[in-house]
Amino acid sequence: MSKTSLKKWLLFTVKAAVTIILIWLVLRKVDMADMKRHFAAIGFDTVFFALALLAAQSVLAAIRWRIVMRLFDRVLAFAISVRIYFEGLFFNQALPSTVGGDGIRIYRVYRLGLPFGAAFNGVLLDRVAGFISLILLVAAAQPLLRQRIDNEQALLAFMGIMLLGLSAIIALLALASLPDSLGRWRVVRGMMKLSLGGREMLKSIRIAAPVLGYSLVGHALMVFAVYLIAMDIGLAVSFVDCLIIVPSVMLVATIPISIAGWGVRESAMVTAFGLLGAPTDAVAALSVAFGLCLIAVGLPGGILWFLNPDHHVADAAEIAEMQEKNRAE
């Protein structure tokens, strides 16, 4: 096993351990009989509509990615964009592995003939766009949070989450201003190019407006899916409550310390909804049910991947090595 493969498996093992520990910390406070009762209350119609909403969110995300690719003068066909996005979703949600969904998307578009830089930065900028829209929702929720939550420490925590996310975006955009002399390192050079791409994306109205618009609508669909499940479970929360809480939870779940956000999402959701007086058993059931819906939405991507004759998977590092090898030949 190569050093690169060993590092990937070690990272995957650490994430798996963190996931198990976090889920255990949540479930040890839960009455499993009550949690089972909450699951039984979720109707098939609710599951159907939640899956439809999450599938629609994924289609909108694929359209967003397609628009981002215009920055590199590459326009992917709509069907191709959706197919590749769902393949990536399968590897992110339904089949967690050492190669994430972003790696699958980068590999697929690279194999379609796109330069590695365009493939890599296009996928990462799509991620950045989704991240920015989450931050915008969290920021917009701050006044409403103060009306619903009295706990000053909790309010500071929500504010801290927003500021950390905002700082991350500002830091990324600032990387383009680093001295050119630092560009001799490939990693720094790549981050500087990504930063430039981020600036171009945000300053171009014809790209920024639809990209952020599709992102915001997609996040709203996700929130509505959570709300539908919460109603069946019997949680006394409104759609506005979910709109306030869920984006912050999902922002926290983007921290890459667990597999597909499992454990982190459950811990954050139990804590956040608990501030509104929601019982731990019901919120834990809500979070797990939502996570299972995410897995279900990713399953069609597995079928699409299986039907593709190219079953090779690769992460960004491997694709860069492939490109260097092709150049050498």
Could you walk me through the main structural features you see in this protein, from its secondary elements to its overall organization?
The chain has 329 residues and is mostly helical. The chain has one domain (3-328). It is 78% helix and 0% strand. The two termini are 25 Å apart. The model has no long low-confidence stretch (mean pLDDT 87).
**Domains, number:** 1
Compute the average pLDDT.
87
Tell me what portion of residues adopts beta-strand conformation: under 5%
What kind of sheet is the major sheet? Answer: none
The shape is globular
The assembly state of the depicted protein chains is single chain
Structural class category: mainly alpha
H/E element order: HHHHHHHHHHHHH
Task: Measure the end-to-end span.
Answer: 25 Å
> Over all CA atoms, what is the radius of gyration?
20 Å
Give the helix level as a range of percent: over 70%
* Spans where pLDDT lies below 50 across 5 or more residues: none
Strand segment tally: 0
The number of helical segments is 13
Please specify the SSE layout and strand pairing.
Layout: H1 3-27, H2 32-40, H3 44-68, H4 78-94, H5 101-111, H6 116-148, H7 152-174, H8 186-203, H9 205-233, H10 239-253, H11 264-274, H12 280-307, H13 316-328
